[in-house]
Amino acid sequence: MSSFEFTDRVGRVSPSATLAISNEASALETQGVDVVDLSVGEPDFNTPENVKTAAHDALDAGKTGYTPSPGIPELREAIAEKLRADGLDHDAENVMVTPGGKQALYEVFQTLVGEGDEVALIDPAWVSYEAMTKLAGGSLTRVDTTPYGFHLEAALEDLQTAVSDETDLLVVNSPGNPHGMVYTDAALRGVRDLAVEHDITVVSDEIYQQIVHDDREMTSLGSLSGMGDRTITLNGFSKAYAMTGWRLGYFAGPAELVSEAGKVHGHSVSCATNFVQHAGVEALRNTDEAVAEMAAAFERRRDTLVAELADRGVDVPAPEGAFYLMLPVAADDQAWCAEAIGEAHVATVPGSAFGTPGYARLSYANSTDRLLEAFDRLEAHDLLTAGV
Ligand code: PMP
Ligand code: GLU
Q1: Is the Cβ atom of 16 under 6 angstroms away from ligand 2?
Q2: For the chain, which terminus, N or C, has the lower number of CB atoms within 10 Å?
């Protein structure tokens, strides 16, 4: 039997908690168990019809070969146009099209984070930022917004204490996974001031940009003065257009960075899938109505969930966007989640995977009936009242 010597690099990271739990839920379902899966963040809607048609048309037109490595010109231009509408000064050359937002982040981390470089995260933070930092050899500094109900504006002083001239990269994610908060303009200006003062590059992960509740305005960080040449804007098609399995995303930033990251891109994925990129153009240009309908459905579910939890004696900070809710559970959130899936057959992700023990993340990208069913089951197993 052969034995492998794995790299330190891969030894530094754990499997993705979000994907691991969703796999566990699928395995139970294969055994015939009815699981309410609130683990992975995946819209429960179908991709809009016109986007699917655009992919069929592209296939019929023979769009099956490699494309230019950074993406087809039509899509790069359509993305640049969207970014300009958000107030960013970008052209097609500022855009890299990738197979998913995750790959976009990976390329950015590989390009900007070296051995010993410091990456600042705002907790709770999506699971893969930590792993990508570690894979790149970087170290982490973390700021916890939990004591402030996940509001960054209230945590700015803590952020100021955490970052310094040693900080190389700061990741900002609004609307945020796993808490659903939308950072205020004052919070974003606070980030800008710190980034300028300490010369920090900022990744602004805006993948939930179109899923914002209560008519809140969502400002793109790179549009603030002083941020244009230090912000990398990350986005993708998975969430807004219900296209998780298509694997399409992008990052945008200074052309010099896009060009350098192009080496990682070219040597790893070559390009995103050809006909999927053509469908991406349609998604960007002709889906306003479908996107608004899905976002409205998420908001209605948020309302039901928060009200239902209050009725059952559990107060939660109401999410302002995305489709995640942080439920206070028990000090040992991992044990709570294990019991929730094992006994109540409700799959959730432990807050500790996001740097925030004591909570479980529930994705409300599921029907209201199933969400209420989840609460009934958790209550029946005495799992709803625990709290931290
Ligand atoms: N950023 C955040 C905050 C996410 O939740 C996700 C979802 N996996 C991604 C990036 C990447 O998504 P995708 O690779 O599907 O575009
Ligand atoms: N972003 C989603 C989540 O947090 C998808 C899973 C993943 O890529 O980690 O559940």
Answers
A1: yes
A2: N
